Description:
Layout: H1 3-29, H2 35-56, H3 69-91, H4 97-106
Helix pairs in contact: 2-3
Amino acid sequence: MSQQSHTSTSWIFILDGVLLLGTGPLFVKTVPAGGLFIAFYRMLFGSVLLGIPCLAGRRNRLRVNKGGGEYMWGVLGGLAYSLNIFLWRSVRKYTTATAVTLLDNTAP
């Protein structure tokens, strides 16, 4: 592939990501469901979609740490993300989707 083709493909993916991030809150606002419900299903689908390649590539991975600490950090990260989605969806009832998304995406 040429450099020009890589650049064009990169811009397409960047614009696609901006479009999805910009319109996502509008679609979520139309769903009559609570924050816990949304957080559960986002985590379920995300776990399945990310778990398949993770488990498939497990055979080729180096065994560096056998203590199991990486799983603890993965679970803690998933719980933190689930809490973030729950709060994002719950707070959306009190303000606009734009304000909630702006605050969520600019938080440190």
